[in-house]
Amino acid sequence: MSTPRYTVPGVTPADAQQVLERLQQRLHALNDLALTLKHVHWNVVGPHFIAVHTMIDPQVEAVRAMVDETAERMATLGGSPDGTPGALVAERTWENYKLGRADAQEHLVALDHVYSGIIVDHRRAAEATGSTDPVTQDLLIGQLHSLEQFQWFVRAHHETAGGTLTDAPAKKAAAPKGRKK
To answer: Where in this chain does the record put each Ferritin/DPS domain (predicted)?
Structure first.
């Protein structure tokens, strides 16, 4: 990503470029998450189908809103967000979601791992932008609030009464969204 010719007052073009690079990765991760969530919505089966099917759609809509606010922040900083599928696939640093039609429990365990990767990388981006651009940091922190809540919703489906997460089916299903294995 090239250095913007202009940016917001108080942020240098060089600092804006660093923030824009982080935001571009967050944009890719959020776009991928929205698509993955919709994929799960379409492919979940089993006795818990309707609960998961209806839980996922509000998450899709909220993540799509995060995509829009992330891209708009990039434009505000003088950047040009790239939301094309080709750029996402070429630049992502995580493995593709592997489950197709599968039981709700398998999808929820896999989604838990997906959310873990997204959240870890969002936290890193929020931390890295704090001193350079607290407005971007605030945006990312706000998104983290929702992402962590969505993970809680997902985890509640595969948590035991003793507080242990059951995740055996997920090992093959999804790599965290932060890094390729």
So the answer is: 21-159
Instruction: List Cβ neighbours of 103 (8 Å cut-off, separation of 6 or more).
Output: 44, 45, 46, 169
Is residue 105 a contact partner of residue 48, using CB atoms and an 8 Å limit? yes
Sign of the four-CA dihedral 51, 172, 83, 26: positive
Report the CATH fold assignment for 13-172. Answer: Ferritin (1.20.1260)
First-to-final CA distance of the chain? 25
Place of tokens 């006795």: 47
Q: Could you tell me the two tokens for 180?
A: 């390729």
- Of the candidates 150, 138, 123, which has an alpha carbon nearest to the alpha carbon of residue 36? 150
Give the separation between CA 164 and CA 158, rounded to whole angstroms: 8
- Whole-structure pTM value: 0.91
Q: How many residues does the chain have?
A: 181
The domain locations on the chain are 13-172
Q: Number of helices (H) and strands (E), helices first, in the chain?
A: 5, 2
Average pLDDT, the chain: 92
